[in-house]
Amino acid sequence: MSLIIYGGSVSPFVRKVRVVLIEKGIDYRLDPVNPFAPQPEFLAISPLKRIPVLRDTDLPEPNTLPDSSVICDYLEHKYLEPALYPKAAFARARALWFEEYADSAVAETIGRGLFFERIVKRMLRQEPDEAVCTKTLTQKIPPLFDYLEREIGTREFLVEDRFSIADISVGSMFVNFLHAGEVPSKARWPQLSAYVARIHARPSFAGLIAEENGLIAHFRTAS
Ligand SMILES: N[C@@H](CCC(=O)N[C@@H](CS)C(=O)NCC(=O)O)C(=O)O
């Protein structure tokens, strides 16, 4: 097994990379790292102190790459099949846009405004601030989800007619939404809600969600 992913399973960015690896059928090892209490060896390979970092032991050092988007792009070029990025220039760029949208605004809103409050704070033995969660759910999330509802429309996937990095990135952020005890409202976002359920039903996502649920359930009940 030549690939090592440093990170924690409930990070949406680590999950992005794991889904790419699983979809491509590539073996890897997940080496647990807590980015909030990093060891000096980890800081040396992650200058922004973020997870994930990939190590490819097929290569001589330096053989590590930080950042989920960089790692996914590397994996796409190293393992060509199945392709997870569109080939046509505009479609590829559009998929990268959805990756960026998920990794920036959606990650920040769901991550900080819900997952951090309801799960990470529990891990730190602190109480969630439900006022922050309410503001996130009522003010910050609706415009983000409205946009995704329009973009997905009646399509099966976000870009072209096949599964891509766009769906992996968006789908991964919605796992953290789920872990925080939420699902997109079927009444307000019918297309998005069906789309998220479809993406999460893929064996790659479903296996990881099942694995993570045990850990999350533990922290949901912790106080
Ligand atoms: N752009 C980075 C973001 C990674 C990121 O923010 N990871 C979070 C965990 S979900 C982290 O390591 N946070 C540690 C910190 O903020 O100190 C990527 O795509 O990998």
Which labels suit this protein?
223 residues; alpha+beta; Glutaredoxin; Glutathione S-transferase Yfyf (Class Pi), Chain A, domain 2; 2 domains; 8 helices; 4 strands; 60% helix; 7% strand; globular; binds glutathione
Please, could you describe this protein's structure?
This protein is of the alpha+beta class. It folds into two domains: about 5-80, Glutaredoxin (3-Layer(aba) Sandwich), CATH 3.40.30; about 90-220, Glutathione S-transferase Yfyf (Class Pi), Chain A, domain 2, CATH 1.20.1050. Helices cover about 60% and strands about 5% of the residues. The chain contains eight helices and four strands, in the order βαβαββαααααα. The protein has helices at about 10-25, 40-45, 70-80, 90-125, 130-150, 165-180, 190-200, 205-220, and strands at about 5, 30, 55, 65. A four-stranded mixed beta sheet has the order 2-1-3-4, covered by helices on one side. Helix 1 (about 10-25) links the parallel strand 1 and strand 2 (about 30). Helix 1 packs parallel to helix 3, helix 1 packs across helix 6 (about 165-180) and helix 5 packs across helix 7. The termini are far apart. The mean pLDDT is about 95.
Topology pattern, helix = H, strand = E: EHEHEEHHHHHH
Low-confidence stretches: none
CATH fold-level assignment of the largest domain: Glutathione S-transferase Yfyf (Class Pi), Chain A, domain 2
Radius of gyration: 17 Å
Question: Number of DSSP helices?
Answer: 8
Largest sheet: 4 strands, mixed
Distance between the termini: 38 Å
Strand order of the largest sheet: 2-1-3-4
**Top-tier CATH class of the largest domain:** Mainly Alpha
Helix content: 55-70%
Strand content: 5-15%
- CATH architecture annotation name of the largest domain: Up-down Bundle
Got a strand count?
Answer: 4
Ligand set: glutathione
How many separate domains?
A: 2
| Mean pLDDT over all positions | 97
Query: Shape, please?
Result: globular
